[in-house]
Amino acid sequence: MTQAKEAFKAMRIFFTGVGGQGTLLATRLVGEAALEEGLSVAMSEIHGMAQRGGVVESSVVVGDVFSPTIPDGEADILMAFEPLEAVRALPKCNPKTMVISSTIPLVPFTVATGQSTYPDVEELRKMTEEKVGRLLWVDAMALAKQAGSDRASNIVMVGILAGTGCLPISKQSWQGALKKILPGRILEVNRKAFELGFKAGEESGK
Amino acid sequence: MHELLTPKSGEKHLLLGNEAIVRGALEGNVRFVAAYPGTPSSEIIDRFYQIGPDAGVYVEYSVNEKISVETAGAAAVSGVRSLCSMKHVGLNVAADAFMTLAYVGVKAGMVMVVADDPSLHSSQNEQDNRYYAKMGNVPMLEPTTPEEARKMTLEALKISETFQIPCMLRTTTRVNHCRGPVTLGDLPTDAPSGEFKKDPFNLVVIPMVGRKLRLALLEKVAKLQEEADRSPFNFTEGQGKWGIITSGVSYLYVKDAVRDLGIEDKVKILKLGFTFPHPKGLIRNFLEGLDKLLVVEELEPFLEEAVRMTAQEAGLPVEVAGKGAQLIPRAFELDAVKVKRALQSFFGVSYEPPQVFAVPQLPMRPPNLCPGCPHRATYYSVKKVFGEDAIYPSDIGCYTLGVLPPLKMADFLICMGSGVSSSGGFSKVLDQPVVSFIGDSTFFHSGITGLVNAVSHDHRFLLVIMDNGTTAMTGHQPHPGIELTPQGKITPKVSLENLVRGCGVERVFTVNPLQVQKTQDVLQNLRESMKEPGVSVLISKSPCPLYENRMLHKKTKVVFQVDASSCDLCKRCLTELGCPAFVWERSASGQECIRINESLCSGCSVCSQICKSIKPKRVGEGKGGNE
Ligand code: SF4
Ligand code: SF4
User: Fold this and answer.
1) What is the ipTM, given to two decimal places?
2) Which of B148, B187, B383, B509 has a CA positioned 20 to 30 A from the CA of residue B264?
């Protein structure tokens, strides 16, 4: 069930991913949907070297909060597009935080060259689950492929967030936002990706 | 139509702070825009470049910030409203023009957007440019949100025009790259034409003119001071004996902190938007009747100094604090938690800061030169020929990432253009060979003067100009030497090679770094000839593949694969070249192998030229390169 708007106070959502994963687009989508719904919203992005394979971090705050950024320990939701990055961003979380994380590793270059080793994914899951309030650990890539493009994982993830209903944003506003920010030729695939994510999000609460 | 050209006023759009500034400038009838890109300011000039023709605005990517101030200043002196934008260190480059343009002044509004980068998200230092406004006696506004950025851009134009002086709009990364709802205003339809009235005794700063203008400037500042006291961008909130003075994005952290701590009924906030000249009258009134006052601002104690001085002048007994132990840190960005801690300690309120989860040591994910980046190939070859003990001064751009292992090809860097000039210094006092790196855009920005200096003083070094045909680091902006445009290939307006020869360099060679052996042969020759004094230049020329894909929609037809049967696991591909497409793996049984990730490989072929076990493989249609 989607949150009732009246009871809703505020939600701070932290996004983390790897350059090229569409983290900023996903951030934008959440922001546009909140605006469409008439909620107050502020987002913060860091541009720069991140495109070259580094970590990309951004945030959306919805509702009655002023700061556009999220201090350590104050994220209500963590959206991680990569499991290692989910753990790296744990300092943003607290014992009540809900984490939605993609399970597919993107191996950092330091690992590819043998300078360090990638932790066991199951270990990463446990580390996250132990600390936070709720963890949705999902193979967003599989759903994206099912929708027709492995590049749509970012939209699948936003779909999951929408499906959990923790934001007071109607389906209609989500759809409006999708249409607004995605160019026509890739809109259909992304709509499907969003829907598949949405269903997964809804079911996770059952 | 572009979102920023929406004619209807009253509509709400979710804009980046930088886009809001563009919209504000359009609503304020700015018709001339000049800038050199620099994070976090780049989207301002980029958006203008996209919409310039439709909006009737002249837009140029100037070769550096000083030039952008001078060209935009000329437009404003001729009655055409103008804007220039730069990152904080850009104002160091433009400072010469900035300081004296403040004397000469403008006829139409001119806004200078200067973007500071607290926490150095993508910069070499963390300087507080508010001091430039003070040093230059130039009015300054500091927005907090994208909406305020739009409004203040309009106001800055008005102030500038009224007082006939450029106005600085000082932002920080969290304003430039924050996205928030912005309510659009009307776009004007009339385009003023320029007119210049000759007036050398006010516009040509020979000493006698400068002296007169200096006095006039001080008068302007006095009047601007009164304006700051009246500005609606400076306002108070709340009631109480405790005071907070703040500006920019810090105001938002203060609002959250005061509410979270439940001290709304005890605290009075003075939010400053017009921060130079300091609104002293307003500050004085605010201080009266307060017991304690905390100044909450990022970076330097800029406002704090003004507040302390005002309190002292007025003989007010209020306790003032700001930067200091347990209070507001002087380095890096603030956030609501840092502010809450400071309020806790200064006002003695209770606060339980969040427990922060510890995270075990995780593999790092540093940014990296892209797969197929020609810079990597250049570094590889230079290192092969000049080895570990040459000194490698570097410069600012994507290629700075060559500092990371395995290349480790940067030894000294302070600012744009320093690679060339510092090499001259190194070469005079050291016996080792000196090889300096600079990108094409940076060379145009501030490398040329260093080269002229080196030639005229017989400095002995090799300058490698890494010409990838664009300004890649900040998002692929054009510069005078570009050959690729959306329309296809063109002849560049300025030829690098002719320019270098024109500076008096005789040993100039151009190579394609993707041809590894040929490049190394040329380098070997250059190494020999460096026994003679003088500067040698190697232009290492190959387009940035990301830019090439975007401009020419080039598809990758061939990728490279490691032939496991002949690979002897020497790992040179990883330890010497380090293309991020390589993957080293160890199977459960302990067996090692090296692969190339096909979806990352851009087919540059460099690795196959250094290892016989790497072979090409054709790929089907549809692999769209590495973007
Ligand atoms: S953007 Fe271009 S120049 Fe920069 S690292 Fe990537 S390929 Fe190299
Ligand atoms: S050809 Fe080799 S060096 Fe070039 S991108 Fe592919 S793997 Fe990297």
Assistant:
1) 0.95
2) B148
